[in-house]
Amino acid sequence: AKADNAGVALGAVASGSRKRPDGVLLSWRYTDPAVTVADGLVPFFIDWGTSPHPALTAAKGATLVELRAEQVALIEPFGATGTPVVVAIVAGSAVLVEGWRAQASAILQTFYAGMEGGNAQAHILSGDVSPSGRLPFTVARDAGDYPHFDRDANAITYDYWHGYAKLARDGTEPRYPFGHGLSYTRFARRALRASVSGESVGISVAVANVGERSGDETVLCYIKYPGAIERCALALKAFSRVSLAPGETRTIAMQIKIADLRYRDEHDHEWKIEPGEYQIHISGGIEADLKASVRL
To answer: Which of 132, 224, 110 is closest to 187 using CA atoms?
Structure first.
């Protein structure tokens, strides 16, 4: 189950099998829609990239954040077979999925994984390793939800309003939010505590693996500002990744420097702390965000 950066040529068929440590025999076939999917084999469609410059919205309104029509045409026949289909996206930025996501049993964002990417992808798809990545961007439902992008411009000012900050300000629900990521196991969090000590805010939270598989969880810590100053209402300020065996619980500690919570006063030309209550949101896991607060 290796694949190089050239991808899989249309019309090509390759197959193979291997046995997992638990004795389950895995079979796979790379194929195109002209080939009948049979024998209960799982077809893995691997998309190697998007249109050139897959970022935001083009100067004349043409979207560059969607798969090309010929790529979508590959996905649809696979989905119609009733056999589970995994679409693996190889791209460095967000790709819209609205036109074809219903045809996919799962979507795997692989970015640019390099020469060992094929092996890594095979380990994840075969179940040997649980996926543990988190999206470093927001996948919107519509290209118009992103900021305007003019590739011919010499300069564009976005200020705070790009990524998840813009969608939150506009009240727009993303398809997959910043920090989204699934796993073959489940995690739970509890016992969130926050306090101010010296020049930092200390946060601790207990994270438990409540599933049946080992896996990595990334705890995301957001700060909600008091709100009198216009800026991103909820900003990621700390995160921590932890590996947990089934049934294992660990307490994660994070520190946020108070200086990192300042804003730039445009009138006095100074960095200042907005006085008031700062809410701490811990995201990730199977429950709603855990919340605590401190006053500065």
So the answer is: 132
